Sequence to fold (225 residues):
Amino acid sequence: MAEDAASSSRRRMESIRRHLLPRPPLVLSLNPLSAAGAEPSPVIIGGMVLDIHAKPSVPPHPGTTVPGMVKYIGGGVARNIAECMAKLGTQPLMISVVGNDMAGDFLLKYWRSGGLCTDGILQVHGVTTPVVSNAFDGNGELIAGVASVQAVETFLTPSWIYQFRRRISDAPLLMLDANLSPQSLQAACKIAYESGVPVLFEPVSVVKSSRIAPIAEHVSANDSR
Fold:
């Protein structure tokens, strides 16, 4: 029995390794879900966020605007990890939510331009896409930031996650970020646990990191934070 468990663990790690190692560009497919016999892909669940970065070109003055540069950038911890996986040659399934607004259209257009699947991304009418606005000083250090990501907690529900139960069960790994509600975290972890799928958890912030505590019996941290 111990040998069977060790063999199963080795097969799982080999599957993870194959997904994370770079592959030749010709391996990529524009629609992995329609490819017959496609190899299971990592599943990423969490925030797809529009980051707005503002950096002044002169010292800022309270109470007034100053010249500078403002950029729109695709962000969100889960989205960033999924994009990195794609650049390494895999085709992750991203499960997230955006609004039917300018920010949501921007994020979806960018995602599709990379040939990535949007089947797991819910676009909701009348909802504001998650946005984080950051202000930097002239040296590029963060001065202040405001995060509006309530849509992830409100609409990335267990019922939406359960629609992708088979994809999660077949995945070599499941990655979750802490923007999910505790109920959605629990639902995703339950599916993974029942199928023996390893779970990676990204705490996002100190405040949100504790959301995994009631669910996970054992947590292995990658640093002292």
